[in-house]
Structure formats: C-alpha cells, structure tokens
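WP5 quarterly update. Target: Sel1 repeat family protein. Source organism: Achromobacter seleniivolatilans. Length: 176 aa.
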Amino acid sequence: MQISIKHGIAASLAAFFLSQTPAIAEEARTLPQLQAEAEAGSAQAQFDYALKLFKIKERQQEGVEWIKKSAAQGDAKAQYLLGDIYLEGRFGVKADMEKTREWAEKSAGQGFDHGQRLMGIYMWNKKPEDIPEGCAWFTLAGDEDNIAQCQQYLTPAQKTALPARVAAIKKQYSLK
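Structure tokens (predicted):
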C-alpha cells in the first residue's frame, strides 16, 4: 500500500523539479547573483538558488538550508519541497514524519496541489484509520490515481463521508 503511493509522489517530485526550468531571462542569473538575492531575503530567489544547489552534489545540504529559509517566509513550493525532503530523507536530511506533516500542511493550506498530495501521503502512511483523511487530501489535490487507489480501502460509510470531509478541510484552510 505505501510503496505505490510513495512512488507516485517521487514521480511527481521529479516532474516538479524538471518543470522548474528558468525562463531565458532567469538563465542569465549566475549562481552568485542568485545567492546575493537570496541573502537579501527574496523567498523566490532562495527557492531558485536552492534548486540550483540541489544539482551540485557537494552543495545539496546548503540547498536544504535555503529551502528552509524560503519555506519559513511562506513560499508554498518551498514548504512542499521541504516536507518531501523530510518524508524521504533527501540531501542528507534525516527522515522525519512530523516535520513532513508540518511543512506539507502549510503548503496544502495555501492550496498548493503538491502540498495537498503530500498531506495525503502523510495521512496514508500514518495509521490505517487515517486513510480516509489521506483520501480527502488526494481529492483536494485532484490526484486521480491515488484517489482511485484510496477508494479500494474505504468502507461504504467512509466513501459517503468523504465529500463532507473534503468540504471541512476546505473550510478549515479557506480553500476554494
């Protein structure tokens, strides 16, 4: 059960990283220029700088520090990536499910679909009785593959209650 759900997020994360190809104007920014902008406090520059550092094996842990700074400023993409880093124990960071939840929830609460999917994965892996909550987060993320897989594990009563739980999450986080 856990392996196929995690496989889905790993594939999603890879696609997410690949989709972060900078625009032509962005390409002209050198690593030192990005570093200067990141040090000046730009959450977007911190995120971009971290992505570039992740591609340099000996600087990946430094990239984690910049993702943390961007996430702390409320950048939903950075929060999601930080949650995923803690989920999988990437870039020399020890896996930590509670930190996964902390950052995934912040990202998901802003309506970021990758963060919502990560919340689904967190709930799915927590305890069997939390699978319905994971399904609600997958529903919010529009993650059809994981929704279909979840449905196999829900009782008829849980399937009936799912729309109400999705509505409650939307209300709790002021999501549309």
